[in-house]
Design brief:
The protein is mainly α and 501 residues long. The chain is built from 18 helices and four strands.
Length: 501
């Protein structure tokens, strides 16, 4: 598997080195992503628990429902920020600078969260959202740039290796940040997440020489008039948002639910508007239009997948805290530690899946991308079927709690589904994207997660009135039905994809 970087992506003798047989620049991006994900998943591990314990007022059930809604909508905001982040890279700075600036802003956000103040807390969340929007789509686009001209299977293997970085950081973070936050001090936990992000920035700067020319320049630089137009529009919408918020506060009608609802609507409207804008863009060639149509199928399926999957950080964390027996040898481990289970499983399974896809491809037996997505939906549906049984078991238990094996089973099935969708979809986005729209298509891929989480701002509220057993079973049925529909539509989708496999 050993290979070296091409001349156009390297400028030093060091570029001849490889990273587990992949371009040496992958090591820089791998470690940057690892520490960035450490900071993100560390903060995420304690976010809902902190909101319930220290920020929100009212009865416990109401606090939990609102915390789950805020969590979903905040995730949506973070991933929606990937769209302007992709535009900044494509049109203004290039991916290299966008990642650097994004990393610095994220670090500042985490350190702001470490300040014991509710105002600082929400300001810190805002900074993290802006920084992540700049970093996430563009670091992934740079990974794709390292594999320019290489085979699809090799690119998939590279993205699976990159996905390992995400999950190493995600596995370690809840163990460290979760323990400190729940058992020592919430703000100390947030501060440690900031240290992780600082390490990401330092490592990215030091390893930049291995990236060659990848991401240095914007692919389609904006004209001065385009820059002024975007600035005017951004200022206008920001002004409208601030004015609406101030009016709500002045009238004495402000409620956190108002923000949740507005952002949830945005999470649905933004992707629709953006797909329309792409189709109307004169730079989109006729031969690329069917590929964008195929991408819409994958996008819609990913929305439902992430809507279900990302409830692990909200409703499943609350279930772990309240309805799971976490005592081992007389010691109760933190509920946030459950969030290390999924990335731990990914670390084990990612190399297996990467090798499996390559081996099956060599034998011309690799499942098509539509089939992989269909399998992902069947598996995510199966995970919530197990969750429905766990909810019923907890309701019928004398203690009101179930053993750890219920959630462990849920996370295992979800991880299998994730392996069929997430790294495959990430790679697919770079292959389906027209060259002039790579950063923005990557932003759309992350926007699928945003839309799923935006919907969570509403759907998680159904859990309390429905009860665990009915709620989780309902979504299990919907997910399985979606998987079957995608399987039936596979031939049509493959035709739209053209020569992309």
């Amino acid at each position: 598997m050993a290979s070296s970087l091409t001349k156009d992506s390297a400028s030093t003798p060091d570029a001849e080195k490889t990273f587990f047989g992949h371009p040496r620049g992958m090591a820089t991006l791998f470690m940057t992503e690892l520490w960035e994900r450490f900071s993100w998943y560390g903060m995420r591990a304690i976010l809902v628990l902190y909101l319930v314990a220290a920020v929100l007022d009212g009865p416990l059930e109401d606090r939990e429902a609102l915390a789950a809604s805020i969590y979903g909508v905040y995730n949506a905001v973070v991933y929606m920020a990937a769209m302007p982040g992709g535009w900044v890279a494509d049109r203004l700075w290039g991916a290299r600078k966008a990642v650097l600036v994004g990393g610095i802003i994220i670090a500042l956000g985490h350190f702001t969260l470490a300040v014991p103040s509710d105002i600082a807390f929400f300001c810190g969340l805002g900074l993290i959202a802006v920084g992540t929007g700049l970093l996430k789509p563009n670091i992934s686009a740079m990974v794709g740039g390292l594999y320019e001209g290489k085979s699809g299977a090799r690119r998939d293997a590279g993205f699976t290796l990159f996905y390992m970085a995400i999950n190493v950081g995600a596995m370690i973070a809840p163990l460290v940040v979760g323990y400190l936050g729940e058992n020592v001090n919430w703000h100390l936990g947030f501060g440690v997440a900031g240290v992780g992000m600082t390490l990401a920035v330092v490592q990215y700067v030091l390893g930049g020489r291995y990236l060659g020319e990848v991401g240095k320049e914007p692919s389609t630089p904006a004209t001065p008039e385009e820059k002024r137009s975007v600035l005017r529009k951004a200022g206008l919408w920001a002004g409208v948002a601030v004015a609406a918020l101030l009016a709500d506060v002045a009238l004495g009608t402000f409620d956190m639910e108002h923000i949740v609802n507005v952002l949830a609507i945005l999470g649905i409207v933004v992707p629709i508007v953006y797909f329309l804008a792409i189709f109307r863009n004169p730079a989109l060639k006729s031969e690329d239009r069917p590929k964008i149509k195929a991408f819409i199928w994958f996008f819609a399926t990913a929305v439902l997948f992430w809507m279900i999957y990302d409830q692990s950080g909200s409703l499943l964390t609350i279930f772990a805290d309240n309805k799971t027996d976490r005592v081992i040898g007389g010691w109760e481990f933190p509920a946030s530690w459950y969030q290390s289970v999924n990335p731990m499983m990914v670390i084990v399974l990612a190399p297996v899946f990467a090798a499996l896809w390559v081996k099956l491809a060599q034998r011309n037996r690799e499942p098509s991308t539509p089939m992989k997505f269909a399998l992902a939906m069947l598996l995510i549906g199966g995970s919530f079927a197990i969750m429905g049984l766990a909810g019923a078991a907890a309701a019928n238990s004398e203690t009101g709690k179930v053993t750890v094996f219920w959630l462990l089973s849920v996370y295992l099935v979800q991880t299998l589904g994730e392996m069929c969708l997430s790294p495959v979809g990430l790679s697919l986005s770079t292959k389906l994207a027209p060259k002039l729209f790579v950063g923005q298509i990557m932003g759309l891929w992350f926007l699928a997660t945003a839309t799923g989480n935006a919907l969570n701002g509403w759907v998680v509220k159904l859990n309390a009135p429905m009860g665990d057993a009915f709620y989780y079973t309902m979504w299990a049925i919907i997910a399985v039905a979606a998987g079957l529909v995608f399987m039936v539509a596979g031939k049509k989708i493959r035709a739209l994809m053209g020569n992309v496999r």
